[in-house]
Design a protein that fits this description.
13 strands; 6-stranded mixed barrel; Lipoprotein-release_system; alpha+beta; single chain; 408 residues; 13 helices; MacB_PCD
């Protein structure tokens, strides 16, 4: 029988007698449980929000994106495009021209990010589920259409039902223009809107999709492109295809995965999560102070018991273990309760979505949660380390009471 653990368990909970110290121990345990539960819930909600944001961005972004390392555009010839399309693992190659443009609709005007895409972009149906009005249609025979973000629609007060007013796109002419007439300083093209999409504010208030030849004419790009968006065959690994593309295209191009396209955002999300964890780790440290004082008072209350143990031949190491085990019992029991309650709440939220975001969107309504077991492990290790440090001093103090305490 492990004598120190048996005694620690009796000090922690006894059916026959509930002393003041036992009550304080239970309060400390409840405090640890609440903090642990709150920490795992907050981290899981943060994981869910991060995953949701990444999924929204990944809906908009391609699996691989080819961009020039210098400048914002590059000349694309037919041979290069065919070579990329023939590369093993490549399913679809979409040509892209993306740049800012000035848009006017009736009396409203706004600067948007115009994204011209080749016809196969529509065939991928990547944004079909994000269309909230109209259709994601860029071409009908020879007639061209634009698909706009919901934020752009709000700013322009645009109605898809009004066929009398098209969208007017303006872009500065290239080269030197010898004219004082403002209308001759810019290129102008008109196009009718066909649909409205809603993804996330960054996209909704900025992006307008148009056919690539519309964008090329407005910007005078000719065969130049700003990017190539590549969809991978599901059975092929993205890093493998990326390496083959990089080898084919050389150092003049950069191949970006979805995470690399938003590397800064992902870095910020990880940093924020780290500081959230530090904040709650500090709260765990505050909770451990209660354990420190609980064990200190227990050491004072039980000094005669300690003296008796010394008389019976107990060593200092045995006495120290009693109070270390007492601290472990408090923290471990609280952690188990907190982790169990936290997991239960997260499971219910993930299954039934009791807590709502409190906003009306076309994408999500419930607070997203994502349980990552590594978070549970880190929280548990943090509790063990912090409470062990908090228990060490009272355990050392308890060893100072020897058999002379019997004489007091």
């Amino acid at each position: 029988m492990n004598t120190p653990f048996f005694i620690a368990k009796r000090y922690f909970w006894s059916k026959k007698k509930s002393s003041f110290i036992s009550i304080i121990s239970i309060i400390s345990m409840i405090e640890v449980a609440i903090v642990t539960m709150a920490l795992v819930i907050v981290l899981s909600v943060y994981n869910g929000m991060s995953e949701m944001i990444k999924n929204l961005y990944n809906t908009f972004d391609p699996e691989l994106k080819v961009v020039p390392t210098k400048g914002k555009s590059f000349e694309l010839d037919k041979t290069t495009l065919e070579d990329i399309q023939a590369l093993p693992g490549v399913s679809v190659v979409t040509e892209v021209i993306e740049d800012n443009a000035f848009v006017r609709y009736r009396d409203a005007q706004v600067v948007i990010t115009m994204k011209g895409v080749s016809d196969n972009y529509v065939d991928q149906h990547r944004l079909d589920s994000m269309v909230v009005e109209g259709d994601f249609k860029l071409r009908d025979g020879r007639k061209m259409f634009a698909v706009i973000g919901r934020g752009v629609q709000y700013v322009l007060s645009l109605s898809l039902k009004n066929d009398f007013y098209p969208l007017q796109f303006f872009y500065p002419k290239r080269g030197k223009v010898n004219s004082i007439d403002p209308t001759k300083l810019t290129n102008r093209k008109i196009i009718a809107p066909s649909g409205v999409f809603a993804i996330e504010r960054k996209f909704d208030y900025n992006y307008v999709f148009v056919p690539i030849d519309f964008a090329a004419d407005l910007l005078e790009y000719g065969n130049r492109r700003t990017a190539l968006e590549i969809q991978i065959v599901p059975t092929r690994a993205i890093p493998e295809v990326k390496a083959a593309l990089q080898k084919m295209l050389g150092d003049d191009f950069e191949i970006q995965t979805q995470d690399e396209q938003h590397a800064e955002m992902i870095r910020v999300l990880k940093l924020e999560k780290f500081f959230v964890f530090l904040t709650f780790a500090f709260i765990i440290g505050v909770a451990s102070v209660t354990i420190f004082f609980t064990l200190s008072m227990l050491a004072i209350e039980k000094k005669k018991d300690i003296a008796v143990l010394y008389t019976l031949g107990a060593e200092r190491n045995t006495i120290q273990k009693i109070f270390l085990y007492e601290g472990i019992l408090i923290s471990f029991t609280g952690a188990i309760i907190g982790l169990t309650l936290g997991y239960g709440i997260l499971y219910l939220q993930d299954t039934f979505g009791f807590v709502k975001m409190g906003m009306q969107t076309a994408i999500f309504d419930d607070y997203p949660v994502k349980i990552e077991w590594i978070d549970f492990l880190i929280v548990s290790l943090t509790l063990i380390i912090v409470t062990s440090l908090a228990s060490f001093r009272p355990a050392s103090m308890a060893t100072k009471y020897d058999d002379n305490a019997l004489l007091q």
